[in-house]
Design goal:
two-stranded parallel ribbon, two-stranded antiparallel sheet, 4 strands, 45% helix, DNA-binding
DNA sequence: CCCCTGACGACGC
DNA sequence: AGCGTCGCCAGGG
């Protein structure tokens, strides 16, 4: 059987799951859309995580700034209130950003599949 | 129902 | 190191 979220779970649960994982990201650490997708269900495309985050910013308080793409780039910055809001939020937590990219991404990276056993 | 558009990611050049 | 392409799944026109 397919393992997509739409066939087995309701869309709402998908959002909740994404938010739950994001809420568990330690302060000062970051993760990627793909890592979350992989943790929730390997078959799920990482695009869906970004899609969930897009819906998130209108709803509750979600630490969306701690989620970047697989290369550590702040691709979601344009969806924040200001173009620099995401970077500033990260730097307040001790995550340095240069050229829209997380510095020492490998060190800051938090993998839910590995650390959230 | 077809086509386009993504807060993505892996590859190829 | 930068682009372009393609696969991915859901939503909107």
């Amino acid at each position: 059987m397919k393992e997509t979220y739409t066939s087995h779970f309701k869309r709402n649960n998908f959002f909740e799951d994404v938010y739950a994982v994001v809420a568990l990201i330690p302060k000062g650490r970051v993760t990627s859309y793909g890592a979350i997708a992989n943790y929730l269900g390997s078959k799920l495309s990482a695009r869906m995580v970004g899609w969930a985050m897009n819906a998130a910013h209108t709803q509750k308080h979600i630490a969306a700034h701690r989620v970047v793409n697989s290369k550590g780039l702040l691709t979601g910055k344009h969806h924040f209130k200001t173009p620099t809001a995401m970077q500033q939020a990260l730097e307040r937590e001790g995550v340095k950003v240069a050229k829209d990219k997380v510095v020492d991404f490998e060190k800051k990276f938090w993998n839910p599949s590995q650390e959230l056993l």
